[in-house]
């Protein structure tokens, strides 16, 4: 009887261990399945792609406006500032000769030429705005225009031959008029009769817009005119006779 009971207990123990092993194996399988499910649920994390680096190149600098306030320079002044002004005008081709620091007629004419080329009021006075443009990195250099000496005899008698030629001459101002019909706050339409020989011979009719701030032109002044021929003008004088004069549209008038 004791042997029967011992055998039964041994069988029961084997069955218990087998069941426990099966349960443990089942638990492990479930744990593996659970782990796999969890891993499948986690999305794949990929390293971000490096951003594309633009090709190296020259950076485009933003222009910095010149806010310098310059001392106004004008005819009659003598200073180092005038000398510097003259040197820059010469470098750009507007002034011939050395910089002596004296603001004379040639310097005034050079400033006028620069102002005209730069779209500024043509005053001959180097104000702050004129100097800012003059000293700028891309200052307007002189565009050389060729003027031929005026040959007065060649203008007569057929005015059609006297058209569209750039000429220059020096003369005596016989008469100067301001036509108020074209008056503007910036200046006036100016008309002159200029004698190119003596005080009353070989007269040329000169016209053009003149800045209100430019050096005034008066009768008796000597002027140097550069301009474009525009045929002739015919008008009746006080004695009833007709006067036929070659006409020039002024591009530049220098007084003195």
Q: Tell me the series of helices and strands, N- to C-terminal.
A: HHHHEEEEEE
Note the gap between the termini: 155 Å
Strand content of the residues, in percent? Answer: 25-35%
- Please tell me what the overall shape is: elongated
Number of domains: 3
CATH class of the largest domain: Mainly Beta
The name of the CATH superfamily of the largest domain reads Nucleic acid-binding proteins
Helical fraction? 25-40%
- Rg result: 48 Å
**Spatial ordering of strands, largest sheet:** 2-3-4-6-5
Given as residue ranges, the uncertain stretches (5+ residues, pLDDT < 50) are none
- Major sheet characteristics: 5 strands, mixed, barrel
Number of helices: 4
CATH architecture of the largest domain: Beta Barrel
Q: Please identify the structural class as seen in this structure.
A: alpha/beta
What's the CATH topology label of the largest domain? OB fold (Dihydrolipoamide Acetyltransferase, E2P)
């Amino acid at each position: 009887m004791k042997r029967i009971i011992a055998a039964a207990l041994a069988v029961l123990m084997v069955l218990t261990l087998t069941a426990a092993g099966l349960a443990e194996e089942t638990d492990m399988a479930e744990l593996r399945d659970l782990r796999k499910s969890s891993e499948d649920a986690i999305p794949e994390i990929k390293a971000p792609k490096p951003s594309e680096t633009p090709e190296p190149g020259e950076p485009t600098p933003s222009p910095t406006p010149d806010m310098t306030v310059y001392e106004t320079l004008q005819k009659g002044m003598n200073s180092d500032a005038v000398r510097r002004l003259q040197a820059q005008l010469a470098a750009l081709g507007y002034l011939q000769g050395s910089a002596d620091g004296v603001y004379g007629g040639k310097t005034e004419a050079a400033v006028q030429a620069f102002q005209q080329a730069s779209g500024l009021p043509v005053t001959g006075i180097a104000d702050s705005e004129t100097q800012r443009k003059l000293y700028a990195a891309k200052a307007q250099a002189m565009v050389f225009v060729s003027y031929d000496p005026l040959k007065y005899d060649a203008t007569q008698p057929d005015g059609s031959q006297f058209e569209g030629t750039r000429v220059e001459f020096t003369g005596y101002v016989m008469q100067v008029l301001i036509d108020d019909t074209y008056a503007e706050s910036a200046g006036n339409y100016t008309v002159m009769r200029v004698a190119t020989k003596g005080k009353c011979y070989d007269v040329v009719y000169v016209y053009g817009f003149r800045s209100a701030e430019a050096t005034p032109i008066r009768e008796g002044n000597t002027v140097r005119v550069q301009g474009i021929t525009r045929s002739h003008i015919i008008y009746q004088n006080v004695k009833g006779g007709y006067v036929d004069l070659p006409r020039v549209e002024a591009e530049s008038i220098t007084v003195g």
